[in-house]
Amino acid sequence: MKSIKVLAIAVLTTLASYSTQAQSTKTIVENAIDSKDHTTLVAAVKAAGLADVLSSKGPFTVFAPTNEAFAKLPKGTIETLLKPENKATLQAVLTYHVVAGNLDSKAVVDAITKGKGSVTLTTVQGGKLVASLSGKNVILTDEKGNIATITAVDITSSNGVIHVIDTVVLPKS
Q1: In which band, very low, low, confident or very high, does the pLDDT at 37 lie, cut at 50, 70 and 90?
Q2: Is there a contact between 100 and 50 (Cβ–Cβ < 8 Å)?
Q3: Whole-angstrom Cα distance, residue 5 to residue 108?
Q4: 31 touches 157 (CB < 8 A)
Q5: Could you tell me if 134 and 121 are in contact, meaning their C-beta atoms sit under 8 angstroms apart?
Q6: Do the Cβ atoms of 80 and 86 come closer than 8 Å?
Q7: By three-state DSSP, how is residue 95 classified?
Q8: Quick one: CA dihedral 127, 24, 165, 82, positive or negative?
């Protein structure tokens, strides 16, 4: 198990090079705005009225889907969620990507190791995400069985940390 932990930390440390693009003095929202890969997420956060919350003190851990992750959703899903009448649903989907606290990659891997292969994270939305290792990758499994791979880690912000994921995770309802 120790070798898995060392391997996972090595992989996550390599991915952490992405964080050099972010500035720890900026909020999670400001760092997301600066990312060309997160324009859909930023638009959704603004439409849901969550920009102020995710700019507040925190700390928060955000699993941030890329534009490509949102593009994997069924056609029309994003447009439907962005409609004002669907604001509560959009808020639920977005807050399902947020965990209270500052969980850097080392903390996530340590929790997986202590959990003997997985750890259940409670999201701000109230749902559960299971973090585990798949080979050398840290993955998240949502309540519907969808799997997202963490592709970049430890984008440090003044109010928490961002980990980039390749798939939108979804709560049960």
Answers
A1: very high
A2: no
A3: 10
A4: yes
A5: no
A6: yes
A7: helix
A8: positive
